[in-house]
Every structure is written in structure tokens, then in C-alpha cells.
Specification:
The strands form six sheets. Strands 1-2-3-8-5-4 form a six-stranded antiparallel β-barrel. Strand 6 and strand 7 (about 85) form a beta hairpin. It is elongated and about 110 Å long. About 40% of the residues are buried. By secondary structure, the protein is α+β, with helices and mostly antiparallel strands. The termini are far apart. About 30% of the residues lie in helices and about 20% in strands.
Length: about 725
């Protein structure tokens, strides 16, 4: 319902209906009332503004609307009682609320039972009426002496049938005679504008027919061949008219339609037609009726009804509530990681051509609902366990893989998604054993996506005396499927510029399934500030590096116009944007047993955060010596203090160290907060990568440049022996 307010926005002048998009329809006298002029005025208030509200939604949404077509009351040509028109078309100043829906129209006919509501749309204000006459420009409806009666404030609102379609507009009420009623007087009669008369007036005024939505389809309904089969199952399930009426009312309310006021039950044909022409009503019906099933015959009938409608494409897999909950659960996961759903779909359905929305690496904005809708149409993927039972639908398998991947990445929501899958499987008749098997498959798949199973590229960077500034010698290895390293050809042993090294790394890392490849860059102590994550193979790189001390490698914020990292040209491709780039250090005298001990306990103890509360690096070093199980340190502060703590961490065997290589003071510590330095360790690689994407795109907004040492003792630097065929790129 759309409310039209009188001048000042406090009092209700009447109602309006949404024709299409921004276009609204109401009575001309309601507009006059809203503008504070006499209701019978015929003066055209062209472009005048009135205030309206979409009051049938969860929260009232107010808008301004402008008068665009003016059709005031005019006399009937033959002088008979009544008038023509009394209509106005308004245009919203802005888009309507997303939940607002245009009215669907149907011609008015004598005998139709309909209802009208007060302009504010409160449910209790309904006035039930029966159409008594509708052959002319005006029609008449009568209400029983019970409930509300049409009166002031109802004008401009729709007159709706029980299925929600509108057959006209309320125009006025016929006043009763004063004093006591006699048997010959009119009681509760109202004047309405039949839709067929309104349609003719709109056409005469030049209002496009595209602004109205007729109820009758242009072509025959596509599922008429199923009606008889669905009716047979409904006869088994809903033989009691009272139960049939109750289920019809529940379904109507779920889909925003009015429940029949007289409690009448639809015929089996009407019920079947309703199920087949609204995608989620079949699943809604199954969800509502399943708890009431008492016999095997009823259970078989419901299963046959659902299977038949779904297999013919006449029914969506999920009910309205199931669909809403799934969008909410997956929405939370996808908001944390846009790659999660495409990854889960690829893992769950490796041999199935995926819908276009799930083929990119990242789910497109607004693509979640389309992805779910496409997956609902996919069939089952497993054998019938036990024989004859329903297969696990593809959508449930993808949901299980999404839950498993979310759990592996520490994004949460796994238990809720599992509970959702359990409920849907139970309603569909999917055996618990079959779903449990898919859940186990998903968990094992997600485990293979973890760091130990993703593609790993090992990069050994070194410099020799006499090498040009900003050049490094590079040796690369790429992990085989069994995890062993394979040497990658890099050409002659010569110093290379960063852009050339970035190109070699990308060639080795690209094409990996699962998570972004892990790129481990081995350097010595003097190159721990080397910003390899910012190296870019699409443009000549000029970082201004030389052979100075470690902090000389700190990269200043990129100029968006210089063509380097952060350039807004769509071509820049820094390594840290696509891969998990971490540092490994060839630290002399590194305590291997301490590294192994701290690595084993890295996720059990809280990280040591060195910030402004402990500016003396010695205090942090003392604590590390005492806490032999501390496996992670986050270092803040200026480069001098930061370097001392970093070197101590490496000497004492701390395997995971995170810092901002551009920080100048302890006050810069909050710049690293978006990375979640103290968050779950399993997701740290990805959080750093995501932050780098933002930092390269908006360097002024994200000034931190995170550097991460990730020293897995189970992956030492491969030896330099290479006995490969010189024509091959790997062994």
C-alpha cells in the first residue's frame, strides 16, 4: 500500500498504487486533498509535489512524487449520475524501495469478492466487499455489516481479489441517510473505478500501456500438462477442504497475497495451478505440509509432487525461507572472500559445466542470487543411497564445500550452514548417510586447499659483488603434485631486474588450482625489507633500490600517475595482489630446533605484539627468551627498533613475523589493523593479500606495506643440484 499525505505530511489524504517503476496511480481528488485545495477542483496541478510513503514494507519509506498526468472528474455525457476519470498519475522523485512491487491488474466482474484498505495500509483496516455493478465508468461494491467499512482515507487504494490482483480503485463511499436506517436504504455501498474503465482513461490521456501489468499471461501457462498429475497427488494430501483452505492461506501469506476472508478452499485445479506458476510455492507447500504427513501413501504423494514439479522445471529446489537463509549464510562467507563460492563450486562439481556467474575467479557483485538460482536447477551427483532414495542435490554439495572452505579459512558460519543443509536434506528425503559422505568429501577437499597442498613457488634471490644496482640473481622451484620441488628454468645465471623476476615468478605460479599460489622469497638479512610483493611484470620497475642498508629498500607510496604499483590504468599487476608472497631468511646461526618447537605451537599461543607500550626492544627480546612457545610476533615502531626486534626473532627461531616496512613511529601501528595481525593464523596469508590489493589501488588510504616472514621448517630451501634436461622447464 502507498500512502498519500496531506500538506505537511501528517494526515492521510488517501492511497495510491504502483503502476510500474517510478509511476503511481491515484485519484485526482486525493491529489487535491494532499495539496490543500478543494477536492472537486479541476485545475491542473502540473508538476506539483506530494509526499507518499511505501507503508506495507518492514519499515515505512517516504518519497516525493510529482504530478505528471491529470484527469479530474468530468460529467457523464448523457447527464446520468456519476462522473468520468478522477485519476492522476504521479512520478516518484527517485527509485522506489527494492521490496516494492507493482500492482497486477485484472478486469472487474460482478460477483467478485474483494477487499480495500485504509490509506495507511494497516492490515486490520481491511473492508470486505462484493462487486455489484461495473458496466459503466464507475462500479459499486457492497460490504456486509461486519468489520470495517470503506470511508474517507480509502480513496485511491486498490480493490484486491484474494489472489492479490487488483480490479479497480476505490473512489468514494455512498453516505447513508441520517437517523435510523430503514429496510430500503443503502448501507455500506462504495463507488469504485473498474480497471477496464481506468485503462481506457489512461490510454486516452496518453499513458503508456507498458506502465501496467495485466494478470492474464500473453501465452498459455507452460505447465498445463502437469496439472492433472499434480491434482492426483493433492487429492491424497488435501482431501479435507479445511486443511486445503488452511494450506492455501498459509501459502498466500508467504507470497504477499491476501488470505481468503471467507475461509473457502480452492479446488485441486486452482491449488495445482498456483503451485506450478510460482517457483517456490511447491517447496513452501512441502515445508508446511511435511509435519502433518501420517501415512506412507501421503509421504509418497508429497515426494512425487515435489519430484514431478522440480524435474519439469516448474518448481525451485528451495522454499522461500530456505532460499532466504542460504543467501544470508553464503552472503556472509562471500563478503569475507569473494572467491569462496566459485572455488567451492569448482571443487564440488569438477566435471559439471558451471553457470557463467560461477566461472570467474571472484563472484561478480550481486551475483550470489543468480548463482544459487542456477545451482538449484542442477540434478543430483551421487548414487541413490539407499537404493531408490533421493540423490544429494548439487546445490547442497556446493553449500557443504563452501562451509568446509570457510572453516578452513577461519571465516566462520560453518555450523549454521551445516544445520541448513541438514534441514533441507531431511525435507527432500535425502538420506543422512549420503549427505554425510558429501560433507566428508568437502572436508577432505578443503584440507587439500590449505597451504600444504596449494602450489608453492620457491624463489632464491641473491646478489654478487659487481652486480648492477636493483638487480638480483634468481633461482626458482615449483611444487609438484606430490609436494616435492621441481627446478624451473630461468635462463643463464645473470642478475635480473625486478620486472623480469616478477615475470618468472608469475609464470611459475599461474595456472594453479585452489588458493593463490604461495610464493616464498628467500633473502639474506640485508634484504628483509625488499618489497617483492610490489614487483610488477607489466611495466619497467624503478624502485630506486641500491646496495645500501636494509631500510633503504623501503618502498615509498606509489604515485598513481607514474605507471607503477597502484597506477589506475587497469594494467598494473603486483605479485602481492595475486599470490601469497612471504619472506624466508637465510639467517646465520638460526636455531633449527627452536624454529620447529615454536612452529608446532604457533597457533596455540597469543602473538607477541611489540608496540608503543613496550618501546624498548630489549623487553620484547627478554620475553621471547622466556616464552619458548611463542611462534608469532607483530612488530610496530620505527625502523631502528623494528630491525633489532626482527633480527632477534629470527635468531631465536620465531617462524612467523609481521611488520609494516613503511612505519616510522609506534603511532603508525593502527595502519596495520585491517590485516588483523592477531587474527586466526590460518587466514593470515589471505588477509595480507587482500590488504595489498587495497593498498596498491588506494595507497593514500592504505599507507601500510605489510611484510611477512613465514618460516615453515618442513620446507627448507631446496638444494642447488639440477640434473634436468636443458630443454625441459622442470624435472
Amino acid at each position: 500500500m502507498i500512502t498519500v499525505f496531506a500538506s505537511g505530511g501528517g494526515r492521510t489524504a488517501g492511497a495510491a498504487v504502483q503502476l510500474s517503476g517510478r509511476w503511481l496511480l491515484t485519484c485526482a481528488h486525493v491529489v487535491n486533498e494532499a495539496l490543500g485545495v478543494p477536492m472537486e477542483s479541476v485545475a491542473d496541478p502540473a508538476d506539483a509535489l506530494v509526499e507518499v510513503a511505501f507503508s506495507g514494507l518492514r519499515d515505512e519509506v517516504r518519497r516525493q512524487a510529482r504530478v505528471r498526468h491529470w484527469m479530474p472528474r468530468r460529467a457523464v455525457p448523457d447527464g446520468a449520475f456519476g462522473w468520468l476519470a478522477d485519476l492522476a498519475v504521479l512520478e516518484l522523485c527517485g527509485e522506489p524501495p527494492g521490496a516494492a512491487r507493482p500492482v497486477v491488474w485484472r478486469d472487474m466482474a460482478v460477483g467478485q469478492r474483494a477487499a480495500a484498505w485504509y490509506g495507511t495500509g494497516q492490515e486490520y483496516s481491511y473492508a470486505d466487499v462484493v462487486v455489484g455493478s461495473c458496466d459503466g465508468p464507475l462500479g459499486y461494491v457492497d460490504g456486509a455489516l461486519a468489520g470495517a467499512a470503506i470511508g474517507p482515507g480509502y480513496s485511491g487504494g486498490p480493490l484486491c481479489l484474494p489472489d492479490g490482483t487488483a480490479v479497480g480503485l476505490v473512489v468514494a463511499h455512498v453516505p447513508a441517510a441520517g437517523g435510523q436506517f430503514s429496510s430500503g436504504e443503502v448501507i455500506r455501498r462504495a463507488i469504485v473505478a473498474p480497471w477496464q474503465a481506468v485503462r481506457a482513461e489512461l490510454a486516452a490521456a496518453g499513458v503508456s500501456a507498458d506502465l501496467t501489468t495485466p494478470a492474464e499471461p500473453a501465452e498459455p501457462a507452460p505447465y498445463t500438462h502437469l496439472l492433472a498429475h499434480i491434482e492426483q497427488q493433492l487429492a491424497v494430501l488435501l482431501g479435507d477442504p479445511a486443511i486445503r483452505a488452511d494450506r492455501a492461506g498459509q501459502l498466500a501469506e508467504r507470497h504477499g497475497l491476501a488470505r481468503p476472508r471467507d475461509g473457502s478452499a480452492p479446488t485441486y485445479r486452482e491449488f495445482a495451478d498456483f503451485l506450478l506458476n510460482r517457483p517456490r510455492t511447491t517447496a513452501d507447500f512441502a515445508e508446511l505440509h511435511a509435519p502433518a504427513l501420517g501415512t506412507d501413501a501421503e509421504r509418497a504423494a508429497l515426494g512425487a509432487l515435489v519430484h514431478l514439479a522440480h524435474s519439469e522445471g516448474a518448481a525451485a529446489l528451495l522454499s522461500t525461507a530456505e532460499h532466504r537463509e542460504l543467501l544470508a549464510r553464503l552472503g556472509d562467507l562471500c563478503a569475507a572472500d569473494g572467491t569462496l563460492l566459485p572455488r567451492a563450486a569448482q571443487g564440488a562439481l569438477p566435471y559439471t559445466p558451471l553457470p557463467p556467474v560461477l566461472r570467474p575467479h571472484r563472484l561478480p557483485a550481486g551475483g550470489l542470487e543468480a548463482a544459487v538460482r542456477s545451482l538449484e536447477a542442477f540434478g543430483g551427483d551421487s548414487a541413490r543411497v539407499p537404493h531408490g532414495a533421493r540423490r544429494v542435490p548439487a546445490l547442497l554439495r556446493v553449500a557443504e564445500y563452501a562451509a568446509a572452505l570457510g572453516a578452513a579459512r577461519g571465516t566462520g558460519g560453518t555450523a549454521q550452514l551445516h544445520a541448513w543443509s541438514d534441514r533441507v536434506a531431511r525435507r527432500l528425503g535425502v538420506p543422512h548417510a549420503a549427505l554425510a559422505e558429501r560433507r566428508q568429501d568437502a572436508a577432505e577437499w578443503a584440507d587439500r586447499q590449505r597451504e600444504g597442498h596449494q602450489r608453492i613457488v620457491v624463489v632464491d634471490l641473491d646478489r654478487r659483488e659487481g652486480d648492477p644496482p636493483r638487480h638480483f640473481r634468481c633461482v626458482l622451484w615449483r611444487s609438484r603434485p606430490d609436494g616435492t620441488p621441481a627446478r624451473v628454468a630461468t635462463g643463464p645465471d645473470r642478475p635480473l631486474p625486478p620486472a623480469a623476476i616478477a615475470r618468472l615468478i608469475r609464470e611459475a605460479a599461474d595456472g594453479a588450482d585452489g588458493d593463490p599460489a604461495l610464493v616464498e622469497v628467500w633473502v639474506d638479512n640485508d634484504h628483509l625489507q625488499l618489497p617483492v610483493d610490489e614487483w610488477d611484470d607489466t611495466e619497467p620497475y624503478d624502485g630506486g633500490y641500491d646496495d645500501g642498508p636494509a631500510d633503504a629498500y623501503a618502498q615509498p607510496a606509489a604515485d598513481p600517475d607514474d605507471g607503477g604499483p597502484g597506477a589506475d590504468d587497469g594494467l598494473s599487476a603486483p605479485l602481492g595482489e595475486e599470490f601469497h608472497v612471504v619472506l624466508r631468511c637465510r639467517t646465520p646461526h638460526r636455531n633449527a630446533s627452536a624454529v620447529a618447537r615454536r612452529w608446532a605451537a604457533r597457533a596455540l599461543a597469543e602473538p607477541l605484539v611489540v608496540d608503543g607500550r613496550a618501546t624498548d626492544p630489549k623487553a620484547a627480546i627478554v620475553r621471547l627468551k622466556k616464552d619458548r612457545g611463542c611462534g608469532r610476533v607483530v612488530i610496530h615502531g620505527p625502523s631502528g627498533h623494528r630491525d633489532k626486534v626482527l633480527r632477534a626473532c629470527l635468531l631465536l627461531g620465531v617462524p612467523v613475523v609481521l611488520w609494516d616496512r613503511t612505519a616510522e613511529t609506534y603511532d603508525h601501528a593502527p595502519r596495520l589493523d585491517p590485516v588483523g595481525p592477531a587474527g586466526p593464523l590460518d587466514g593470515l596469508h589471505e588477509r595480507v593479500r587482500r590488504f595489498r590489493v587495497d593498498a596498491y589501488a588506494e595507497p593514500a588510504k592504505y599507507p601500510a606495506r605489510p611484510a611477512l616472514v613465514w618460516d615453515d621448517p618442513d620446507r627448507p630451501l631446496p638444494d642447488g643440484l639440477w640434473l634436468a634436461d636443458p630443454e625441459s622447464s622442470e624435472v
